[in-house]
């Protein structure tokens, strides 16, 4: 390693000539001076006070637009409600709420970026890296940096700008809070109790969905699967029917009896290999409706949870948190399949308050 006459380092590198013989070549590494920062172009808001004031007015206007849009999203939730009688009403509800929330987020985002781009101090700088520490001198310097940043951004000085930003940001989560809060009505029963009680009861026949035809045990062959509802469900009114069906839907299957691994406490819940399980997935409530005859697995098409029917529908894959609830069944005097009782646990998704207030 040596230096050339210009102060550059000379490095050696192995190379080969055309005849294939090894040789040594010298590569000169030129030294360069630090070019520094390019000439900085100043913004019009730095040199023209009127432009600065106009930019501030526009940014304040954007923050107020965000506030108004957040309020609009809340109002839209009530002005364009979702009607159970007209499912197309969900379009208007989602459209106007979405417009409000999107505009609120867009306006506050654009306003914040514009504040940084046009009003905060515009100065290029470079700073050497150093080890951080917690010494008094460092802490003092950090405080000075924050004070300088505050002065340069104008956060404390530009009160109208600052307060409009704070107001817009505070209003942003309000539509979500209102929408989520409205999902719970204090007059409703506790969700654990609601999901623990369905139309199934002792002696209620299992009938086909949606025809309502009763099912005899002899109709269920090995490998077959039936979508089942409780008898009498179709006699309910529209809204009541939908609510009751959402909890009571069942999938009925028949397996070879030697394939069932029944726990002692559940002996007698099946009938000659015929078993019935809730169709409501224990993940987020999607309908479990895909039955694989060879493996005896149930599949939820929403998030791919799989349940093993031979082992009380235990979860063998996917995000479901617990097995599907089993409906105890038997036959009546006419050979029709009937329920022995309701489910012995809440149906539907697993949620954290399932066991808080009820011993189920």
From TrEMBL:
One of its GO terms (molecular function) is metal ion binding. Residues 1-50 are annotated as: Disordered. Its main location: membrane. Residues 247-338 form the Rieske domain. InterPro entries: QcrA_N, Rieske_2Fe-2S, Rieske_2Fe-2S_sf, Rieske_Fe-S_prot. Residues 12-24 have a biased composition (Polar residues). Keywords: 2Fe-2S, Cell membrane, Disulfide bond, Electron transport, Iron, Iron-sulfur, Membrane, Metal-binding, Oxidoreductase, Respiratory chain, Transmembrane, Transmembrane helix, Transport. It holds the Pfam family QcrA_N. Residues 34-50 have a biased composition (Basic and acidic residues). It is found in: Cell membrane. GO terms for cellular component: plasma membrane. It is a multi-pass membrane protein. Gene3D superfamilies: Rieske [2Fe-2S] iron-sulphur domain. CDD domains: Rieske. Signal peptide: none annotated. It comes from the Bacteria. Belongs to the Rieske iron-sulfur protein family. PANTHER family: CYTOCHROME B-C1 COMPLEX SUBUNIT RIESKE, MITOCHONDRIAL. Iron-sulfur subunit of the cytochrome bc1 complex, an essential component of the respiratory electron transport chain required for ATP synthesis. The bc1 complex catalyzes the oxidation of menaquinol and the reduction of cytochrome c in the respiratory chain. The bc1 complex operates through a Q-cycle mechanism that couples electron transfer to generation of the proton gradient that drives ATP synthesis. This is Cytochrome bc1 complex Rieske iron-sulfur subunit. The lineage of its organism: Bacteria, Bacillati, Actinomycetota, Actinomycetes, Micrococcales.
């Amino acid at each position: 390693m040596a230096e050339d006459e210009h102060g550059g380092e000379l490095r050696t590198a192995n190379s080969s000539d055309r005849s294939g013989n090894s040789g040594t070549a010298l590569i000169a590494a030129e030294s360069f001076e630090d070019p520094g920062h390019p000439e900085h172009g100043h913004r019009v808001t730095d040199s023209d006070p009127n432009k600065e004031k106009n930019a501030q007015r526009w940014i304040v206007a954007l923050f107020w637009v965000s506030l108004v849009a957040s309020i609009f999203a809340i109002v839209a939730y009530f002005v364009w409600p979702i009607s159970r009688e007209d499912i197309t009403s969900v379009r208007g509800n989602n459209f106007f709420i979405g417009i409000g929330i999107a505009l609120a987020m867009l306006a506050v985002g654009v306003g914040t970026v514009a504040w940084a781009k046009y009003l905060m101090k515009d100065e290029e700088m470079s700073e050497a890296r150093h080890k951080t520490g917690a010494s008094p001198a460092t802490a003092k310097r950090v405080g000075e940096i924050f004070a300088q940043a505050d002065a340069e951004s104008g956060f404390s000085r530009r009160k109208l700008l600052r307060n409009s930003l704070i107001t817009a940001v505070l209003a942003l989560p309000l539509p979500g809070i209102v929408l989520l809060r409205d999902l719970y009505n204090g007059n409703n029963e506790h969700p654990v109790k609601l999901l623990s009680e369905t139309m199934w009861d002792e002696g209620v026949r299992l009938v086909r969905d949606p025809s309502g035809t009763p099912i005899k045990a002899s109709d269920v062959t090995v490998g077959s699967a039936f979508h089942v509802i409780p008898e009498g469900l179709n006699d309910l009114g529209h809204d009541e029917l939908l609510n009751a069906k959402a909890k009571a839907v069942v999938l009925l299957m028949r397996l070879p009896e030697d394939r069932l691994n029944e726990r002692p406490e559940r002996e007698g819940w099946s009938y000659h290999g015929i078993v019935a399980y809730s169709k409501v997935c224990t993940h987020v409530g999607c309908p479990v409706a895909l039955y694989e005859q060879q493996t005896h697995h149930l599949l939820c098409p929403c998030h791919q949870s799989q349940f093993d029917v031979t082992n009380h529908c235990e979860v063998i894959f996917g995000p479901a948190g617990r097995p599907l609830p089993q409906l105890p069944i038997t036959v009546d005097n006419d050979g029709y399949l009937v329920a022995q009782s309701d489910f012995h646990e809440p149906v539907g998704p697993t949620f954290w308050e399932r066991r808080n207030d009820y011993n189920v």
